[in-house]
Amino acid sequence: MTRASRSDITRRRLASQALTGSITDPALVVDRMLAVQAQDLRWAKWAVAVRAPGSTSADVDGLIDSGRIVRSWPMRGTLHLVPAPDLAWMLGLTTARLWAGAATRRRDLGLDEATIEHARTVVEDALSGGRELTRAGFLALLESHGISTDGQRGYHLIWHLAQSGTLCWGRQLDSQQMLVLLSEWVPRPRLLERDQALGEFLLRYLAGHGPAPLTDFAWWSQLTMADAKTALAVAGGQLDALDVDGVRHLLPQRSDLGPLGRAAPGRGPTAVLALPGFDEYLLGYRDRSFAIEPENLTRVVPGKNGIFLPILVRGGRIFGTWRRDWQPRAITVHPEPFSPQPADSETSTERALHDYARFLGRPVQVLPAPPTAPPAP
Fold first, then answer.
1. Is 5 inside any structural domain?
2. Is there a cis peptide before residue 211, judged by omega within 30 degrees of 0?
3. How far is the CA of 131 from the CAs of 134, 142, 175, in angstroms?
4. Contact 127, 179 (CB under 8 A)
5. For 107-153, what is each residue's pLDDT tens digit?
6. Structural domain boundaries enclosing 328
7. Of 121, 156, 185, which residue is a domain's last?
8. Which SS3 state, helix, strand or coil, does residue 234 take?
9. Mind telling me which InterPro entries this protein's record contains (predicted)?
């Protein structure tokens, strides 16, 4: 097994995550990443487009509205954008465990199997033939058939029916996504046997996130370690391994990531990336120390409340956050580095934030960075 440095891993992850500018088609970005976290859809669109330089929000909208990529809950009970053909086999691997984990919640909400199946029948009848519903329309439909959606019952029914492969989010209309039948929105899913699907899951994770340990894959997918080991047994012949401080990091064979000790081709080593909140560059790993100093993690997740702020990355390291304020005619963007930056970094940061403005098709005003403060305890 080849030995590698921590900086080798960081550089190679930039390339595997399509952050070196080597991909120009946003659809291929989602194919590479397999799953892009998307509870905040506006951030998810930027997560795709920043990996395909020159792409716009309209380009990603087109992929969503055409059904080329789909937004649903393929894993971890969290919304993601995934390639449409891959959603079915992902749900086949993750649903049973998530359902088991949600049993208490269903009981607390008074959602028994009969109620859920009644809701499924009502929804299938209402949406068949290419019809669609807003979230409000979905809730009103259930209420009209005697199914209460009080509290979190309505949201949980959407999640449950999507997790079971009945529903997914379809096209966007007036800033809302419509609910549609998955079988109609994705008429030709890719179907895989369980072990084959486990191997594919690991290969695709590593193609978009590697090199990474098997434990990171299990954490990211929320599969059991037994399933992760089965995935490795299936896919192991297509993988290489690097030894980093005694920890085995996996990556696909013939990865076009350049030799060890050198930066991958593409964006220069001093280029700044303005990545969105909830970006896979940070959320794709259990061990985040390859991207950020542990003492700075609280700046990205203030209050440890699960809300990940947008991040600034240079040379593979997270050196700050940024935030946006929507104004009627423009967007004001505030870079907030963890420490004072050299002039070339400030220039590159401004350039990266203007890339975000071009993605939106709106003018942006980049405000000067405020004085830095120590991280919160």
1. no
2. yes
3. 11, 16, 18
4. yes
5. 999 999 999 999 999 999 999 999 999 999 999 999 999 999 999 99
6. 272-366
7. 185
8. helix
9. AlkZ-like (IPR009351)
* 287 domain-assigned: yes
Mean pLDDT of 207-213: 97
Domain boundary pick from 129, 150, 185: 185
* Token representation of residue 296: 């700075």
CB atoms within 10 A of CB 200: 20
- What are the residues whose beta carbons fall under 8 Å from the beta carbon of 94, sequence distance 6 or more? 74, 75, 76, 221, 222, 223
Who's near 337: CB < 8 A, 6+ residues apart? 312, 319, 320, 345, 349, 369, 372
| 56 & 159 share domain | yes
Check: pTM over 0.90? Answer yes or no.
yes
181, 301: one domain: no
List of residues 6+ apart from 290 with CB closer than 8 A: 6, 9, 10, 13, 316
Query: CB-hemisphere CA count at 13 Å for 246?
Result: 0
Domain count within the chain: 2
Query: Amino acid identity of 299?
Result: R
Residue corresponding to tokens 């079971």: 164
Side chain identity at 107, as an amino acid letter?
R
Residue 8 lies in a domain: no
- Residues 42 and 181 placed together within one structural domain of the fold: yes
> What is the radius of gyration, based on Cα positions, of the chain?
21
Which residues make Cβ contacts (< 8 Å) with residue 304, sequence separation at least 6?
A: 298
Question: What sign does the dihedral 118-122-125-131 (CA atoms) show?
Answer: negative
d(CA 72, CA 35): 10
